[in-house]
């Protein structure tokens, strides 16, 4: 190829430059996701502390908003300009591992280091028996409810199953005014996840034992019928397909939503933005047989295979996974403790909201580790939006989505 | 006459040509290479795959739907913009008190980044706390909030309207330039002959403005066809892909799903489509000019 020499020349000059700078200092570049306005400051502080304790090291932090993180990492990696460490969604990890972009960490992990973690959160980053990432952030979901609205409507106990959710929403609707019973997310990222709460409670599985989609099952039809019934009876906010997770959370903070399912960080937001809001946190509603599932999410920090400073990068990882640094991070961001010693700190152990979340962890399910998951999630969200809008009947729409998902799974095998 | 090599027109245009070729042709070549290969999500080539990526894109029902929507999107915005910009330019070309301020107001949307405008509109269109609903309620035009972005039936027309709004400043500027190039004595002569306002517009202004309208059509078509921020910031092409145009569909393919091969094939198809229609339009318009 005529332009090949140009690429080689460009790459080798980049490499030469990287070598030259590596010789002068132990530079470690870290791409971090911006969880909140506190994230950047936290990592900058950690970098400064680490540099003071390790003379000659230089930690460079790059803060990237979540929305463009995947795009930035993809672009950096294809140009060979990626950092040494990066935070990624654990559900993306399989691509990084199968393309040999992420380096296994087993050579560095000592039994003592491994013992720091709660196993539930470390396990999603383990593939083929090797650990490819460390859980930098962990979260689960539970149901928030507005105590003031519940009191006005005469609801005494938070609903434990979907029938009680509907009954409570009807009472809140009967109050009149501009409050809505059940906050239902119908737009953008995690629209599919909001459906899984009902789906899992009906005993559904995202991927059946035979490796195909579980959307063409009785559980899925029933779960969709529960949500559709709430929408049709005016028990959700109107226009669900125009509200993403943040939009529903904002309505909840304004005191206009009776119940919604979301992550622990809403507690932090309420503390700062709506400190007077009377709310409670309870388990995700159960299905007829008592089944319930919460969505567990972890983000992993990974070490790149092409990193030139793996030793220094590991030392920095070791530092940010000490109990004190983890506690500081999780308190800032409103994440669940991933570190066993950390979870015993009074800060977390005595937090009533967090207890509800950690209580649900035995029921936590993670996004299936299969290639093409993002596309499968998009197909699911599209099908749900059609159902919510009344543009498709429940069963044929879900069956068509399941067939499309089976095609994606087969193509990626 | 003997020319120095330094005044040879080819030599003089060579640096600009090389720069343009570097900026345009090199990426095009790279995209072409990726589109003919099996490629992973990090852009690493995994072997030649022929036209697989192209057939995958062309056989996706989403592609045809997005194509059709792109046509509506482009024609709607370009036609709407031209129809509104001509009278706006005519008015701003008159001499009246406060013309300077009026011109600034028309141009202001241009000074704000498109993404910013789109995000502001997303808030304004919010069903529960949006300004548009509260304004319409205040005026007594509606009793119930309209969920503008909840379904494509309302979302897509509103997105086209936003597209028109942000295209007006640039188009009006072109037309104002065109109007100032029409000599005043033509209008004086017409007045002497007793032509009314409509006749002056139809027989003098419009024909002399033709080349500027052609420029406005071509430039707007190119930018609107590839316009990403308005749709992405308001609906991300949803609900259920019902407001996807080609460029938002392309972003999803490339960055959300990591199918860089198919994304490259699609962007080549889009490039070809745009080139095809622009060339046809320019040829038609030029033929009209000569006649």
Q: Summed up, what is this model?
A:
The complex is a heterodimer of chains A (413) and B (291). With 413 residues, chain A is α/β, with parallel strands linked by helices.
Question: Which features characterize this protein?
Answer:
heterodimer, A: 413 residues, D-Maltodextrin-Binding Protein, domain 2, 2 domains, 5-stranded mixed β-sheet, 4-stranded mixed β-sheet, 13 strands, 48% helix, B: 291 residues, mainly alpha, MetI-like fold, two-stranded antiparallel sheet, flat
How would you describe this protein?
The complex is a heterodimer of chains A (413) and B (291). By secondary structure, chain A is α/β, with parallel strands linked by helices. Chain A has two domains: 4-139 and 297-365, Periplasmic binding protein-like II (D-Maltodextrin-Binding Protein, domain 2); 142-295 and 370-411, D-Maltodextrin-Binding Protein, domain 2 (3-Layer(aba) Sandwich), CATH 3.40.190. Chain A contains 19 helices and 13 strands. In chain A, a hairpin with a 2-residue loop joins β4 and β5. Mean pLDDT of chain A is 90; it is low at 13-24. Chain B has 291 residues and is mainly alpha-helical. Chain B has a single domain, classed as MetI-like fold (Orthogonal Bundle). Chain B is built from twelve helices and two strands; from the N terminus they run αββααααααααααα. Chain B has helices spanning 9-35, 52-58, 61-93, 99-111, 114-124, 131-138, 152-180, 184-192, 197-225, 229-234, 246-256, 260-290, and strands at 37-39, 45-48. Chain B has a two-stranded antiparallel ribbon with strand order 1-2. Chain B is flat, with a radius of gyration of 24 Å. In chain B, 29% of the residues are buried. The mean pLDDT of chain B is 91. Chains A and B meet through α3, α11 and α18 of A and α11 of B.
């Amino acid at each position: 190829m005529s332009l090949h020499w140009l690429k080689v020349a460009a790459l080798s000059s980049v490499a030469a430059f990287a070598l030259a700078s590596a010789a002068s200092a132990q530079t470690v570049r870290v791409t971090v996701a911006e969880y909140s306005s506190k994230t950047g400051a936290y990592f900058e502080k950690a970098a400064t502390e680490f540099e003071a304790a390790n003379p000659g090291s230089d930690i460079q932090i790059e803060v990237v908003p979540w929305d463009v993180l995947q795009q930035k990492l993809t672009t950096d990696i294809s140009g060979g300009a990626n950092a040494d460490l990066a935070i990624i969604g654990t559900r993306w990890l399989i691509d990084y591992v199968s393309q040999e972009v992420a380096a296994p960490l087993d050579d560095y992990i000592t039994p003592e280091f491994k013992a720091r973690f709660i196993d539930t959160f470390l396990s999603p980053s383990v593939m083929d028996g090797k650990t490819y990432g460390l859980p930098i952030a962990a979260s689960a979901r539970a149901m928030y409810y507005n105590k003031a609205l519940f009191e006005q409507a005469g609801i005494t106990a938070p609903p434990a199953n979907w029938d009680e959710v509907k009954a409570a929403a009807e009472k809140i609707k009967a109050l009149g005014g501009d409050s809505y019973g059940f906050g239902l997310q119908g737009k953008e990222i995690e629209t599919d996840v909001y459906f899984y709460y009902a789906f899992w409670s009906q005993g559904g599985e995202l991927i059946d034992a035979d490796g195909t989609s579980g959307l063409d099952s009785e559980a899925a039809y029933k779960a969709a019928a529960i949500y559709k019934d709430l929408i049709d009876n005016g028990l959700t906010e109107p226009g669900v397909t125009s509200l993403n997770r943040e939009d529903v959370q904002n309505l909840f903070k304004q005191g206009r939503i009776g119940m919604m399912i979301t992550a622990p960080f809403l507690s932090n937001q309420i503390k700062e933005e709506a400190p007077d809001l009377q709310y409670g946190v309870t388990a995700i509603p159960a299905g007829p047989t008592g089944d319930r599932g919460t969505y567990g999410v972890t983000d992993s920090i990974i070490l790149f295979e092409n990193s030139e400073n793996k030793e220094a990068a590991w030392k920095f990882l070791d530092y940010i996974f000490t109990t004190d640094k983890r506690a500081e991070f999780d308190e800032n961001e409103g994440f669940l403790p991933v570190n066993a010693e950390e979870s015993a700190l009074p800060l977390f152990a005595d937090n009533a909201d967090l207890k509800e979340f950690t209580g649900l962890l035995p029921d936590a399910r993670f996004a299936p580790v299969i290639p093409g998951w993002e596309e499968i999630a998009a197909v699911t969200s599209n099908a749900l939006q059609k159902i919510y809008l009344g543009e498709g009947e429940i069963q044929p729409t879900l069956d068509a989505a399941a067939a499309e998902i089976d095609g994606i799974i087969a193509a990626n095998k | 006459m003997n020319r120095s090599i330094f005044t040879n027109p080819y030599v003089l245009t060579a640096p600009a040509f090389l720069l343009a070729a570097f900026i345009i042709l090199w990426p095009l070549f790279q995209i072409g290479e990726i589109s003919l290969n099996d490629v992973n999500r990090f852009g690493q080539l995994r072997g030649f795959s022929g036209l697989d990526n192209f057939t995958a894109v062309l056989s996706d029902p989403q592609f045809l739907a997005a194509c059709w929507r792109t046509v509506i999107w482009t024609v709607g915005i370009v036609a709407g913009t031209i129809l509104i910009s001509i009278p706006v330019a005519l008015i701003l070309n008159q001499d009246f008190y406060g013309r300077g301020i009026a011109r600034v107001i028309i141009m202001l949307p241009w000074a704000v980044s498109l993404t910013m405008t789109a995000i502001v509109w997303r808030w304004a269109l919010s069903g529960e706390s949006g300004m548009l609903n509260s304004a319409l309620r205040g005026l007594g035009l509606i009793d119930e909030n309209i969920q503008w972005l909840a379904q494509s039936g309302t979302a897509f027309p509103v997105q086209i309207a936003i597209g028109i709004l942000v295209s007006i400043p640039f188009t009006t500027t072109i037309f104002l330039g065109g109007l100032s190039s029409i000599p005043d004595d033509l209008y004086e002569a017409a007045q002497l002959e007793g032509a009314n306002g409509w006749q002056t517009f139809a027989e003098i202004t419009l024909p002399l403005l033709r080349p500027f309208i052609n420029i406005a059509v071509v430039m707007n078509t190119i930018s609107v066809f590839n316009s990403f921020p308005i749709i992405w910031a308001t609906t991300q092409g949803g609900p259920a892909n019902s407001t996807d145009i080609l460029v938002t569909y392309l972003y999803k393919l490339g960055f959300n799903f990591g199918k860089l091969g198919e994304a490259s094939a699609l962007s080549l198809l889009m490039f070809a489509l745009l080139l095809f229609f622009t060339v046809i339009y320019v040829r038609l318009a030029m033929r009209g000019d000569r006649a």
